[in-house]
Amino acid sequence: METVSLICKKKEVLDFYKNHPNLDFETMNLIFVTIMQNLMQDMNSSLNSNIATQLLNQIQGLQNQMNFVSENVVKLQSDTIMNFSAKFSEFKREYIDDVKMVLTNNTVDKIAPLIKDHNSILLDKTQLMLNDVVPKNNEQLTKQLQEILKVFHSSISDETNQLLKSTINQQTLTDFINTLDNKFLSAQSNSQQILNSIITSSEHRLDSRINEIKTSTEQHIQDIKHLSNTSQTSQSLLQNNVSELLKKMEISSVKGKCSENVLFNILQSLYSTAQIEIVGDQKETGDIMLMRKNKPTILIENKNWNKNVIQEEVKKFIRDVETQNCCGLFLSQNFGVANKENFEININNGNVLLYVHEVNNDAEKIKIAIDIIDNFKIKLDEVIVTNGDGYNIDKEVLDEINKEYQLFATHKLLQIKTVKDFSSKMVKQLEDLQLPSLEHFLSTKYAFSSSKYICEFCEYVAKNQSAMSAHKRGCKGKTNICGDSDNVSPISETIQQTNIVIQTAPESGKRVSSRKK
Hints:
This protein is of the alpha+beta class. The chain has three domains: 11-232, no CATH class; 254-392, Trna Endonuclease, Chain: A, domain 1 (3-Layer(aba) Sandwich), CATH 3.40.1350; 434-480, no CATH class. The chain is 65% helix and 10% strand. The protein is built from 13 helices and twelve strands. The strands form four sheets. The chain has a six-stranded mixed sheet, with helices on both faces. Strands 7-8 form a two-stranded antiparallel sheet. Strands 9-10 form a two-stranded antiparallel ribbon. Strand 9 (453-454) and strand 10 form a beta hairpin. Helix 2 (25-41) packs antiparallel against helix 3, helix 3 packs antiparallel against helix 6 and helix 4 packs antiparallel against helix 5. It is rod-shaped. Keywords: Coiled coil.
């Protein structure tokens, strides 16, 4: 198992944790790591007020923890002094009482060993008391107290030896007891001074550290406030930009421009070899001009209104077509056109004009409308003018042709929709006809051809029908074929079916295939 360790070589940090042994190194670092992670994760323009509030709460919590730790340290050190003084006073009282009893109730030859025993007991008690009261990891304090107690024990031993060498009477006993009492008081006073000095220095260091953390915290708070203000400014700017964009979309000119761009992209995908120009900013040119090789030029007028297009716009469209002397396609994206039927065909100076309702940027509708204009224009040119000799078409016949084309366009759209729905349902049902277990078993015994989706234009192999549909939308082979189909008349071709016969020799496991055409 990998061992993870934390190493610090800075003397200032080591001294801090030595002087405050109740602070765990790992716990304190985890607290600061959590704060830094929260600060670093969202130091960007997207910092919002909620995150800033959370960070401020965490920093405030850290300050409260540090204050709590400081109070606990002071309380712990005060309790240490009180416990040390109380136990030391108790040892003094017991020792003096024992010495008085020894000196009073024993002969001279028995006093010396008894006092030495009591001195040894006092030394052991003070050492145990020192180990219990003073924290074990505070080496500096322990060392200083041991030096004081060592001097204290040495002085008591000296006083005891002097007493034993002198004449023992009531006066010498009283002087000896008073001397012991003074020695105890001196040792206790020196110990308390050391403890007080260490507590004072610890408090100063802790206060200094807390002030540093407080200063750093205040700086972080200012940075967070600055980031929060910056984020709010960016959000306000973004909201203003979005609001301005939405307001612009309500303007008819901007709305019409967006619709023109959508229509332009549709035409680009339908006619990759055509010259398509947005001419809405030019006079008497409509919105888009569609120019193709060996095909009539078409002026396209696009209307993205929330109501039926009025008659004045139709008159303007006819005037533009007359000025450009070309065919025209009038598209109403959402509603109809005043005084014009859906897919209504008009003839104007030998040019074909077509009106389409509720287009909704349907590429199929747009392509059908352009195909109608192309085919109608070809037939119209054949009928009207040949070598100066003209042919007249009765208005009734022309009206019938117009009605037939309208009916044809409507039925064509309906049939296309029906075929698409039927085709999609049949494909889905056929895809559901699968025998995966049988297919897996037979594939281990025979040469097996699994179902694949292959593009008929470029032989691209797709994983499923969705992938094939996505491929066909941008297939270069399809684009080239569609471009050529604009110039080449449809021809009928015979497709020969290929039957594949697979034979298997069970004994050898070899597969033999032959192809018949």
